Amino acid sequence: MVVHKINSARFFIKLSTIASAGLAGFWAGKQLERNQYFKNKNDENTDDSDILSKCNIKRMPGLPLFGSVSAASPIIPNENQPDMGVKASVTASRVGQIMKYGFPGFDTIRSFDDFVLSYDRRNRVAHWVFEHLTKEKLQPVENVDRSTCEFKADESIHPYFRSNNSDYKGSGYDRGHLAAAGNHKGCQKHIQQTFFLSNMAPQVGHGFNRHSWNRLEKYVRGLTKIYSDVYVCTGPLYLPKRDSDGKKYVRYEVIGSNHVAVPTHFYKIIVGEKDSKYEMEAYVMPNAPIDDNTPLTSFLVPPESVERAAGLLFFDKLARSQLTKINGKKAS
């Protein structure tokens, strides 16, 4: 037994010696390689401290470590690769215009050609959708035809978290646009992209999607006659309601096999810009039939109330002190 322990101890001593020698050799080799590198650089009279200053490094906007950014538009075929730099630059430039005043959040972002959204994979509905409208961009083009557009599942979303047309079938809800199709009549591709289901949410049809919500969308388009640039962010809300027991609960329906969430409310936050002056309006509408005679001003709410409810910060690169009006009233 004693002999066995002595032999085991000798074995581990030899193993440790071999490992130590190996590590020492590796370290010595790396040091020799490093010294040789700097010797060669000195022979070339190169100032190593100036290497980074000579590199053409562009400053790029940062994204959160766990953010997810993906181009939702189709991938360009290989035969067109020489044009990829130009097309990517154009897309990035448009995204920069749309998101000029900041991202409300960075969860699963999808950048389309003319709008940007953040997708809620748990609820299968976007957190928010951002658009930039101008009078010129809203001009309809003769060959653009909404009737040829088809509702399609967004294949840039993982199948686990994707909504499908079958989820809406027989649900009693419309596939309601968040980025309105009427805002993108300048290009057939742009209007078709608004029909991806990642841009849809279950909406009550009669009295809401086809009526009061549509009135709000038309109102937003009309703002381009007043402002040179109109920025609009649209999204769902899931608001609490007091139950019979006196407690508040957040309850909402889900539809289809993918359990697509039916929002209790929807919001629009709008900023109109003209001559470096800014005005903001914030609307919240219940996802329910609304009397068409109800004025849109009935749905104006303080912007911060939407931010608290949605867990988002809207237009955070635009200081509130720069706003001349909020909901039609002079900003304090």
Task: Tell me briefly what this model is.
The chain has 332 residues and is an alpha+beta fold.
Descriptive overview:
This protein has eight helices and 15 strands. The protein is of the alpha+beta class and 332 residues long. Strands 1-2-3-4-7-12-13-14-15 form a nine-stranded mixed β-sheet, sandwiched between helices. It has a two-stranded antiparallel ribbon with strand order 5-6. Strands 8-9 form a two-stranded antiparallel sheet. Residues 2-6, 37-71 and 73-82 have low confidence and may be disordered.
Name its key features.
about 325 residues; alpha+beta; 9-stranded mixed β-sheet; two-stranded antiparallel ribbon
Would you spell out the secondary-structure blueprint of this structure?
Blueprint lengths: L1 H42 L7 H4 L14 E3 L12 H15 L10 E3 L4 E5 L4 E9 L31 H4 L4 E5 L10 H6 L6 E5 H5 L2 H11 L6 E9 L3 E2 L5 E2 L4 E2 L4 E2 L3 E10 L2 E10 L16 H8 L12 E4 L2 E2 L2
Parallel strand pairs: 1-2, 13-14
Antiparallel strand pairs: 2-3, 3-4, 4-7, 5-6, 7-12, 8-9, 10-11, 12-13, 14-15
Q: What gap, in angstroms, lies between the N and C termini? A: 89 Å
Classify the secondary structure makeup into a structural class: alpha+beta
Beta-strand residue percentage: 15-25%
Question: Main beta sheet, described?
Answer: 9 strands, mixed
How would you write the strand order of the largest sheet? Answer: 1-2-3-4-7-12-13-14-15
* Total strand segments: 15
**Count of helical regions:** 8
Mean pLDDT: 83
Rg: 29 Å
Q: Uncertain regions: pLDDT < 50 for 5+ in a row?
A: 2-6, 37-71, 73-82
